[in-house]
């Protein structure tokens, strides 16, 4: 396992990292505001044929690929169309989370985040930790607060005029702005970049968002794999990804083991 060092120890790596972070910020961040959802009260049930058409738009070379046959499945008595809506929504949501995680991993590796701070971001903070180690160092109470917030946002996201398993728009997150005095921005598209988008622009943005999300899911797992097993992802071997001897799939391992 590589020693616990910052990604920016060497001058040439610092230049490389700045270029990587800037590129990711310009490309991945745009995916968060790429497509405005259709009206929430309009039923848009999707079928397998709709998935096949969308798959061709997403990747004309591979096209529709469903080795597990999930497009024909029915989860929890939802029916086939309800299951497709559930899977579409899950993919879009996981893609958004992965984009944030992938970009966040690089940002957390910079001295600006992982370096010394006059005001500690949390009790027990230590400079020079890698992104997974930074999570391990957060006190259990802090982790529980983070998961509680996630649970609250998840629950609110299920309060929909038309649920995505019943014909609602996959990926739609209801407005949250103004529900409390401190909520001054929406979680989705907080700055209203999509307010004046045409239907064609929304459709093109959706394709970009799904593709970016899929790439980000592969990207964040590649970073974690390279950190745990150095050399397991050859394209990342030369970037100096610091090693990690914990379990990235065990978020509370440092608290109980």
Bulk shape: globular
User: How many helices in DSSP terms?
Assistant: 8
Count of beta strands: 0
Q: Over all CA atoms, what is the radius of gyration?
A: 20 Å
Low-confidence stretches: 1-43
Please report which band the strand proportion falls in: under 5%, 5-15%, 15-25%, 25-35%, 35-45% or over 45%. Answer: under 5%
Mean pLDDT metric = 81
| Main β sheet profile | none
> How far apart are the termini?
20 Å
User: What is the helix content?
Assistant: 40-55%
Listing every helix as H and every strand as E from the N terminus to the C terminus, the arrangement reads HHHHHHHH
Describe the overall structure.
By secondary structure, the chain is mostly helical. Helix content is 49%, strand content 0%. Helix 3 (79-108) crosses helix 7. The two termini are 20 Å apart.
Could you list some keywords that capture this structure?
0% strand, mainly alpha, 257 residues, globular
Task: Give the helix/strand layout.
Layout: H1 11-31, H2 48-58, H3 79-108, H4 111-114, H5 131-137, H6 140-157, H7 199-228, H8 253-256
Helix pairs in contact: 1-3, 3-7
